[in-house]
Design brief:
- The structure is a single chain.
- The chain has helices at about 1-25, 30-45, 50-60, 85-105, 115-120; strands spanning about 30, 65-70, 75-80.
- It is mainly alpha-helical.
- The protein has a single domain (about 1-110), classed as Arc Repressor Mutant, subunit A, CATH 1.10.10.10.
- It has a three-stranded antiparallel sheet.
- It is globular, with a radius of gyration of 24 Å.
- It starts with a helix and ends in a 12-residue tail after the last helix.
Length: about 130
């Protein structure tokens, strides 16, 4: 069961990784390695540099974040921060995820169960063998 849970978490994280990265950057600007360690610490899922850095480049190309070099650190690091467009995407995504969550919670609730259908229409019930 624990393995299955980890598998589901990893699959969800892959699909939502760009949004998770933007959400981290909403809190404060970060360099790539800090994003990698934050994801691992918070979600228990590891995505390496070969996943995170191309994603950061793609998000920057789309205008969702911007980068600058921090030359005051021990060694120069590229630091990323959320743009207004990135914030707009997060706002839209939050609404969409809430909508999807509500739909998942109510799936099947509008469909009558078999017992409800039999109460409404007794002709649907199976006849006893004595009646045949």
């Amino acid at each position: 069961m624990k393995h299955r849970l980890k598998e589901v978490q990893t699959k969800l994280m892959r699909g939502l990784l760009d949004l998770v990265v933007l959400q981290f950057l909403k809190a404060h600007p970060m360099h790539g390695y800090k994003i990698i360690t934050s994801i691992r610490r918070n979600f228990g899922v590891y995505f390496g540099p070969s996943t995170i850095y191309p994603l950061l480049g793609e998000l920057e190309d789309k205008g969702y974040l911007q980068s600058s070099w921090d030359l005051d650190a021990e060694r120069p690091r590229k630091v990323y921060k959320l743009t207004n467009e990135g914030q707009s995407l997060l706002d839209c995504t939050e609404s969409s995820l809430n909508h999807i969550h509500k739909k998942i919670l109510t799936m099947g609730m509008n469909k009558p169960s078999l017992s409800d259908a039999l109460r409404v229409n007794p002709l649907l019930s199976v006849k006893d063998s004595d009646d045949v």
